Amino acid sequence: MNSWNWDKKKKKDCEPSLDDITKKGNANKHSAVYASRDALQLRVDFQVLDALIVKCLDELIEAKNKKAA
Asked: Residue 36 — pLDDT band, cuts 50, 70, 90?
Protein backbone atom coordinates (compact mmCIF):
# COMPACT_ATOMS: atom_id res chain seq x y z
CA MET A 1 0.00 0.00 0.00
CA ASN A 2 2.85 2.39 0.74
CA SER A 3 4.27 2.26 -2.78
CA TRP A 4 0.89 3.08 -4.36
CA ASN A 5 0.53 6.55 -2.84
CA TRP A 6 -2.54 5.06 -1.16
CA ASP A 7 -4.69 7.60 0.66
CA LYS A 8 -3.86 7.56 4.40
CA LYS A 9 -7.53 7.30 5.35
CA LYS A 10 -8.05 4.30 3.05
CA LYS A 11 -4.95 2.65 4.49
CA LYS A 12 -6.11 3.34 8.04
CA ASP A 13 -9.56 1.93 7.22
CA CYS A 14 -8.03 -1.30 5.84
CA GLU A 15 -5.70 -2.05 8.73
CA PRO A 16 -8.33 -3.18 11.29
CA SER A 17 -9.96 -5.47 8.72
CA LEU A 18 -6.62 -7.01 7.75
CA ASP A 19 -5.73 -7.50 11.42
CA ASP A 20 -9.14 -8.98 12.20
CA ILE A 21 -9.00 -11.48 9.34
CA THR A 22 -5.44 -12.46 10.24
CA LYS A 23 -6.06 -12.93 13.96
CA LYS A 24 -9.41 -14.69 13.68
CA GLY A 25 -8.24 -16.82 10.76
CA ASN A 26 -5.22 -18.01 12.70
CA ALA A 27 -7.29 -18.61 15.81
CA ASN A 28 -9.84 -20.65 13.86
CA LYS A 29 -7.10 -22.71 12.27
CA HIS A 30 -4.82 -23.29 15.24
CA SER A 31 -6.97 -23.13 18.36
CA ALA A 32 -8.75 -26.14 19.76
CA VAL A 33 -11.35 -23.94 21.48
CA TYR A 34 -11.79 -20.76 19.40
CA ALA A 35 -14.42 -20.76 16.68
CA SER A 36 -16.22 -18.11 14.67
CA ARG A 37 -19.97 -18.47 14.79
CA ASP A 38 -20.80 -16.69 11.54
CA ALA A 39 -19.21 -14.81 8.70
CA LEU A 40 -21.03 -11.49 9.09
CA GLN A 41 -17.93 -9.59 10.23
CA LEU A 42 -15.84 -11.29 7.57
CA ARG A 43 -18.29 -9.97 4.97
CA VAL A 44 -17.89 -6.43 6.33
CA ASP A 45 -14.10 -6.80 6.42
CA PHE A 46 -14.01 -7.82 2.76
CA GLN A 47 -16.28 -4.92 1.81
CA VAL A 48 -13.78 -2.58 3.47
CA LEU A 49 -10.91 -4.33 1.66
CA ASP A 50 -12.60 -4.35 -1.76
CA ALA A 51 -10.65 -1.36 -3.13
CA LEU A 52 -7.38 -2.78 -1.79
CA ILE A 53 -8.02 -6.17 -3.39
CA VAL A 54 -8.85 -4.56 -6.74
CA LYS A 55 -5.70 -2.42 -6.55
CA CYS A 56 -3.57 -5.50 -5.77
CA LEU A 57 -5.01 -7.34 -8.74
CA ASP A 58 -4.49 -4.33 -11.02
CA GLU A 59 -0.83 -4.16 -9.93
CA LEU A 60 -0.34 -7.88 -10.57
CA ILE A 61 -1.94 -7.69 -14.03
CA GLU A 62 0.15 -4.64 -14.91
CA ALA A 63 3.36 -6.38 -13.78
CA LYS A 64 2.47 -9.49 -15.75
CA ASN A 65 1.74 -7.45 -18.88
CA LYS A 66 5.06 -5.62 -18.56
CA LYS A 67 6.89 -8.91 -18.16
CA ALA A 68 5.17 -10.39 -21.21
CA ALA A 69 5.93 -7.35 -23.39
From this structure: confident
Q: Return the CA Rg of the chain.
A: 15
What distance in Å separates the CA atoms of residue 58 and residue 52, rounded to the nearest whole number?
10
2 pLDDT tier (thresholds 50, 70, 90): low
2 vs 44, more confident: 44
Distance, CA of 6 to CA of 53 (rounded, Å):
13
| Residues 13 and 48 sit within 8 Å (Cβ to Cβ) | yes
**Domain boundaries, position 28:** 2-68
Query: How many structural domains does the chain have?
Result: 1
